[in-house]
């Protein structure tokens, strides 16, 4: 059994749209995959109720992207780690959106000091060039040997060379410090705009993954706000 979060996003294959817990992606693709129990994000009690000795993995985004730019609470990730350890389950962090410096660390899990068993990365890993990777412990990696599974971009020499160059550029103190400095600037300015015009009730996120919660007067009008802002 799997215990992913509600309103998460993990891809567009038949399996991953089911794991994501968003009907707008999974409706129309069937049959529905059984054994998946979606849990409200940051709800540790709900996660405790869902995880058992039948659970093979808990799948999380350290910061929910499509779910509303919701950073995980430290206690939630720590609790997830403890639950997985107690039930011999794997803790999987999907860092396709949060990884590669976007959060102010190379990977967002580093903010928390909670290490997953499996981490997924893609997109920004190649700086725009198609590549994806699954990172895991050595004792787990031996179960997925060459030929066990395949991927269009797996092991592509050009993609791997590009990814290596991207990591060399991003994973430096200067670049990561710049991400955090820009976060402080954006958050301060957006908070100021929210107070001045009553448009935002909260500005949240990490690094350059930032979201603004619209006030009641502007709910449902995100496109209008965006378009009006561009025309100013």
From TrEMBL:
Q: What is its EC number?
A: 2.6.1.44
- Please list every transmembrane segment annotated in the UniProt record, as residue ranges: none
Q: What is the superkingdom listed in this entry's lineage?
A: Eukaryota
* Enzyme type, top EC level: transferase
The entry's protein name is alanine--glyoxylate transaminase
Q: Which reaction does it catalyse?
A: glyoxylate + L-alanine = glycine + pyruvate
Family matches, as Pfam families: Aminotran_3
Q: Name the family.
A: Belongs to the class-III pyridoxal-phosphate-dependent aminotransferase family.
